[in-house]
Design goal:
Length: 154
Protein backbone atom coordinates (compact mmCIF):
# COMPACT_ATOMS: atom_id res chain seq x y z
CA UNK A 1 0.00 0.00 0.00
CA UNK A 2 1.10 3.57 -0.66
CA UNK A 3 0.47 6.09 2.13
CA UNK A 4 0.82 9.71 1.03
CA UNK A 5 0.72 12.51 3.57
CA UNK A 6 -0.07 15.73 1.75
CA UNK A 7 -0.57 19.37 2.57
CA UNK A 8 0.28 22.81 1.30
CA UNK A 9 3.80 23.01 2.72
CA UNK A 10 3.00 25.86 5.10
CA UNK A 11 3.79 23.78 8.16
CA UNK A 12 5.80 20.83 9.41
CA UNK A 13 2.73 18.69 10.10
CA UNK A 14 3.23 16.36 7.13
CA UNK A 15 6.87 15.61 7.90
CA UNK A 16 6.09 15.23 11.61
CA UNK A 17 3.27 12.77 10.85
CA UNK A 18 5.38 10.74 8.41
CA UNK A 19 8.26 10.47 10.90
CA UNK A 20 5.91 9.21 13.62
CA UNK A 21 4.20 6.83 11.16
CA UNK A 22 7.47 5.28 9.99
CA UNK A 23 8.67 4.84 13.56
CA UNK A 24 5.73 2.68 14.59
CA UNK A 25 3.16 5.33 15.53
CA UNK A 26 4.91 6.06 18.81
CA UNK A 27 2.90 9.05 20.07
CA UNK A 28 5.56 9.91 22.65
CA UNK A 29 7.93 10.61 19.80
CA UNK A 30 6.26 13.97 19.12
CA UNK A 31 8.19 15.61 21.94
CA UNK A 32 11.48 14.06 20.79
CA UNK A 33 10.98 15.44 17.28
CA UNK A 34 10.26 18.95 18.56
CA UNK A 35 13.71 19.90 19.80
CA UNK A 36 15.58 22.56 17.77
CA UNK A 37 17.43 20.06 15.55
CA UNK A 38 14.23 18.09 15.00
CA UNK A 39 12.38 21.21 13.86
CA UNK A 40 15.15 22.09 11.40
CA UNK A 41 15.07 18.52 10.06
CA UNK A 42 11.27 18.52 9.68
CA UNK A 43 11.38 21.94 7.99
CA UNK A 44 14.03 20.68 5.56
CA UNK A 45 11.94 17.62 4.66
CA UNK A 46 8.90 19.85 4.02
CA UNK A 47 10.92 22.09 1.70
CA UNK A 48 12.17 19.07 -0.28
CA UNK A 49 8.61 17.84 -0.77
CA UNK A 50 7.16 20.98 -2.36
CA UNK A 51 5.80 19.83 -5.71
CA UNK A 52 7.44 16.44 -5.28
CA UNK A 53 6.47 13.04 -4.00
CA UNK A 54 9.23 12.19 -1.51
CA UNK A 55 9.66 8.61 -0.30
CA UNK A 56 10.40 8.62 3.44
CA UNK A 57 10.38 4.94 4.31
CA UNK A 58 8.48 1.71 4.85
CA UNK A 59 6.30 1.21 7.91
CA UNK A 60 5.82 -1.87 10.09
CA UNK A 61 3.11 -3.21 7.73
CA UNK A 62 5.33 -2.87 4.63
CA UNK A 63 3.41 0.21 3.43
CA UNK A 64 5.48 2.73 1.49
CA UNK A 65 5.19 6.16 3.13
CA UNK A 66 5.53 9.38 1.13
CA UNK A 67 5.23 13.12 1.68
CA UNK A 68 3.84 15.54 -0.91
CA UNK A 69 3.51 19.27 -0.52
CA UNK A 70 1.27 20.78 -3.12
CA UNK A 71 1.90 24.47 -2.31
CA UNK A 72 -1.25 26.23 -3.52
CA UNK A 73 -1.96 23.75 -6.35
CA UNK A 74 -3.61 20.95 -4.36
CA UNK A 75 -6.63 20.73 -6.67
CA UNK A 76 -4.31 20.11 -9.62
CA UNK A 77 -1.55 17.97 -8.13
CA UNK A 78 -3.61 15.38 -6.22
CA UNK A 79 -5.67 14.28 -9.28
CA UNK A 80 -2.48 14.26 -11.38
CA UNK A 81 -0.76 12.07 -8.81
CA UNK A 82 -3.69 9.65 -8.69
CA UNK A 83 -3.69 9.42 -12.49
CA UNK A 84 -0.04 8.29 -12.38
CA UNK A 85 -1.01 5.42 -10.10
CA UNK A 86 -3.88 4.64 -12.46
CA UNK A 87 -1.53 4.56 -15.48
CA UNK A 88 0.67 2.07 -13.65
CA UNK A 89 -2.38 -0.06 -12.89
CA UNK A 90 -2.21 0.45 -9.13
CA UNK A 91 -5.63 -0.13 -7.59
CA UNK A 92 -6.94 3.01 -5.86
CA UNK A 93 -7.59 0.88 -2.79
CA UNK A 94 -3.81 0.59 -2.43
CA UNK A 95 -3.32 4.36 -2.23
CA UNK A 96 -4.23 6.11 1.00
CA UNK A 97 -4.09 9.91 1.01
CA UNK A 98 -3.72 11.65 4.36
CA UNK A 99 -4.60 15.35 4.26
CA UNK A 100 -2.69 17.28 6.94
CA UNK A 101 -4.02 20.72 5.95
CA UNK A 102 -6.85 20.92 8.53
CA UNK A 103 -4.29 20.88 11.34
CA UNK A 104 -2.39 23.95 10.12
CA UNK A 105 -3.00 27.06 12.22
CA UNK A 106 -1.43 30.52 12.42
CA UNK A 107 1.45 29.22 14.58
CA UNK A 108 2.50 26.88 11.78
CA UNK A 109 2.07 29.46 9.02
CA UNK A 110 4.05 32.16 10.84
CA UNK A 111 6.65 29.68 12.09
CA UNK A 112 7.20 28.38 8.58
CA UNK A 113 7.48 31.93 7.25
CA UNK A 114 10.03 32.91 9.91
CA UNK A 115 12.08 29.76 9.30
CA UNK A 116 12.76 31.13 5.83
CA UNK A 117 14.23 34.37 7.23
CA UNK A 118 17.66 33.67 8.68
CA UNK A 119 17.59 36.17 11.55
CA UNK A 120 14.09 35.03 12.62
CA UNK A 121 14.71 31.27 12.58
CA UNK A 122 14.74 30.95 16.36
CA UNK A 123 11.30 32.59 16.48
CA UNK A 124 10.16 30.22 13.72
CA UNK A 125 11.36 27.21 15.71
CA UNK A 126 9.44 28.35 18.80
CA UNK A 127 6.26 29.00 16.79
CA UNK A 128 6.42 25.62 15.03
CA UNK A 129 7.03 23.87 18.34
CA UNK A 130 4.11 25.72 19.95
CA UNK A 131 1.87 24.90 16.97
CA UNK A 132 2.73 21.20 17.16
CA UNK A 133 2.05 21.13 20.89
CA UNK A 134 -1.27 22.97 20.44
CA UNK A 135 -2.40 20.59 17.69
CA UNK A 136 -0.96 17.45 19.32
CA UNK A 137 -4.34 15.74 19.76
CA UNK A 138 -5.34 16.41 16.12
CA UNK A 139 -2.02 15.05 14.86
CA UNK A 140 -2.49 11.91 16.97
CA UNK A 141 -6.07 11.57 15.69
CA UNK A 142 -4.91 11.63 12.06
CA UNK A 143 -2.17 9.11 12.85
CA UNK A 144 -4.60 6.78 14.64
CA UNK A 145 -7.00 6.90 11.69
CA UNK A 146 -4.13 6.23 9.29
CA UNK A 147 -2.88 3.28 11.34
CA UNK A 148 -6.34 1.69 11.29
CA UNK A 149 -6.82 2.27 7.55
CA UNK A 150 -3.40 0.91 6.56
CA UNK A 151 -3.01 -2.03 8.93
CA UNK A 152 -2.31 -5.21 6.97
CA UNK A 153 -3.86 -4.00 3.71
CA UNK A 154 -0.99 -5.11 1.41
Amino acid sequence: MYVIYHGTGRSIVGSLATKIHINGFNHNQVNQLLDDNGIYNLYSIERQAIGRLVFLGIDENKNQVFLLNTASAETIIIPALLSVFELHKVDKKNVYLVDTTPIVDSYFVLGNLFMGISFLRSVGVRLLTAGARRQHSKIISILDRTRIMTANKN
